[in-house]
Amino acid sequence: MSLLAPLLLLGLLGLAAPLIAHLRGREEPRKIAFAATRFVRTGDEVVTMRRHLRDRLLLGLRLAALALLALALARPVSSGRARVAVLGEPHDAILLVDGSLSMSLRTDRVRALDGAADAAAAVVDALPPGSRVGLVTSDPSGPRLELSADLGLAREAIGEWLAGGAPRAGAWPLDSGLPVAAALLRGDAGGRRRAVYAIGDPTARGLGSLPETAGPDTPVLPVPALGSLDALPPVPEHLSLDSVGWEPARDLDPRAVRVWGVVRRHAPGPLEPDNLRRVAVAMQLGGEEVARADVMVPRGGEARVEFTHTLIGDGPSPASLALVELADDPLPGDEVRHFWLAGEDELDIVLVNGDPSEMRAHDEVFFLATALSAAPGRRLRVHGLAPDQLEARLREPRPLAGVDVVVLANVRAPAPDAAAALARRVEEGLGLFVTVGERVEAAAYNDRLGELLPLRLREALVVGTAPGRTENRTEGLAPANLAHPALRGLGDDLGLLGARTRRLFLLEPDAARPVDVALSFTSGAPALITHTHGRGRVALLTTSVDRDWSDLPLRPGFVPLVERLVAYLDASQQGAAGAVLRVGEPRILPGDRPATVITPTGERLAAVPDGHGEAVFKDTWVPGHYTVERGEDEPPLRFAVQVDPAESDTTPRAVAGPQIEGDEVLAAARYPRWRPLVLLVALILLIESILRWRLTTRRGQARGR
């Protein structure tokens, strides 16, 4: 046992205060006058009674409360097993602390983030004299400190961060903070060694996401928030609502909807189908509970719950599914899922097949239509049109009325009048997805749809025929640009890295035209690019969407790619269930006028458009329902924000111990012992108040007699 602030034990001198108060509180002797004193002889021995302290129990309680308070202020701690070994010579150290939602997990009623703060203090105290320390958190808005010889600054910053409400509901892998940590270490170190001490939970997105180094001669040393690498505490069982969805149930009623949710029971070890736990799930509509159901969830597994509801009134309604009757779940924040519910919420998509085939594998839109039907998110209404049928629809008085997205799959360029009508519809907000193939002619597309395309087409290329690349017969895909609005929140490789392409279209570069590249080939050539045209959006895939030019449709990432891309092309995004974001994910608001966003807390925030005719709303840190007011002449937009279900996965991963070359110092785990003392002081003060009230009452009654 040791004290972090031993000088505060001087507060024990305050124990004299209650003693002095009790001594001064004795009653003074009263003089009583007698009528005659003749029977009192002078010189008789005078006998007096010495008064002793009263209310000794009250005095003892007050002395005990003051003594315990002084001891608590001195902050006693006890040391346990070593958490991590630090470099044994003066060096530059960066503390990288996990600030994601999973750090809210309580183990033996101790939050992982509170344990991370204690672990950071242990590392700082163990650093050799002359070291410098900085601070980085995976939370983009968390504290960041440059390297400083004042080691106490990091402890203070972490304490203020926790007091400010950390962790938030965001999902940030711990390795996302490594680039910032490496940047802080790039300065002049004066020849000293460098290290990153990563503090978090031993999960796939925590310590399990880290590499062994953050740069040349910069090891990454993992530090568990609780326990030590060789003695991790058991992960407590907890529940989460992983996903929700809904679909119209017109077989029951024209306005009926079927709502479903997946409840997961997180527990270490294998699935135990016979170990069932009853979980209550409530459906809320407009803030009021409208239905409740029980579901039996196996240990380590999941179970599906389903509701059927008939909507009343027009327009989308804010809805939620929530786990209720939970007795102090160890990981709060992942038991509610928010969404907007409406009787009609379908995205109307027109697939124009430019190269139909009786062989499904070579039909131009077979894989695309299959992917759209398998998309788990928003409900899609898919129509197929031939190229001449598309041109007929474009020549109607209201071209493509009610259509949200058009896909031109290896289609010859439309006639000039039909192409002009298509351009007008895109300006009004229609989404357009163009995929190439044998029937696409660069000159015709550039002449009729050149202003719509993100970049003009140059020529089709057979991979391996270009100079310098004769050894390659296929072209692979580079890692996806996850910063693209259509791909935010997806996995690192998107399940497309193995895709191979035999033919592709080269594009004419144009520095004056703003485009966003979502996918590229390993050669650097664009594979999927997008462009904004008026209020609409256009996407161009430079290879085919069937098996003729590429095996892209066979990759597992093809379905989520198509789902997210189609949702992105729906520029209006007025659908209810289609507008669902992760916490912290920005929301793109189309329009050239300022909008007002009403958050779940009722706060009204302004969203101002940029020069491209859209506003980017980034303040999506609170899960719940959001409404966007765009003016009296335009309907409001609505979207929901949910926590990332990946943060609920607390399955521990094996984390290798730190690899240190040279001398090392053990940083022992320190466990605070002052928190129980503070609670004991509060209990003593409560007893003291009750006792003082009873004594005062008794004395008042005695005087009244």
TrEMBL record:
Task: Give TM segment ranges.
Answer: 57-74, 677-695
User: Which InterPro entries does the entry mention?
Assistant: Aerotolerance_reg_N, Class_I_gatase-like, Double_TM_dom, VWF_A, vWFA_dom_sf
Q: Which residues form the Aerotolerance regulator N-terminal domain?
A: 1-76
> Entry's Gene3D superfamilies?
3.40.50.880, von Willebrand factor, type A domain (3.40.50.410)
Annotated VWFA domain residues: 94-201
Q: Recite the UniProt keywords alphabetically.
A: Membrane, Transmembrane, Transmembrane helix
* NCBIfam families in the record: two_anch
Name of the protein: BatA domain-containing protein
Q: Which organism is it from?
A: Nannocystis punicea
